[in-house]
Predict the 3D structure of the following.
Amino acid sequence: MSRIGRKPVAVPNGVTIEIESNNKVTVNGPKGALSRAFSPDMTFQTEDGNIVVGRPTDQRHHRALHGLTRALLQNMVTGVSSGYTKDMELVGVGYRAIIQGKSLELSLGYSHPIVVPPPDSITFEVDKTGRMIIVRGIDKELVGEVAAKIRALRPPEPYKGKGIRYKGELVRLKAGKSSKK
């Protein structure tokens, strides 16, 4: 059996899970609510405060769905209970970020500022130096997608490392031109 799929999903206090007959799962918690439709082949059982995901057969397709379903359910529970964040750094002279209303305004060395409006359930934070961006939300997939779109506006270049990067991301720098002697 799948090692990930057979682990039970712990349901913390303050989180409620509703499973409908068509495998639509709704998770409510202190930070909000998430809903997702899972494959009709997967089964959900409640056992003493935990949710256990089951599969009908050992076919390759069902084995793959088993671990995926359990991981997505765990991400939903974690999201509504504690939320997700993605920290990003701006590296480069004149690269700054500020919050305008709810939108994120970036100065990235272009002739114009770039405004990034947040999708529903996503919030932006910028530190006082304007060099750290924090993307917060309850949907792990959406937080990662928004962070990736922001990074794609000016990815780190390989010679000086200027651009937007995830916090702790290692950017391999190339050597510059060498002079002939």
Notes: The longest strand covers residues 84-91. The chain has two domains: 9-81, 84-166.
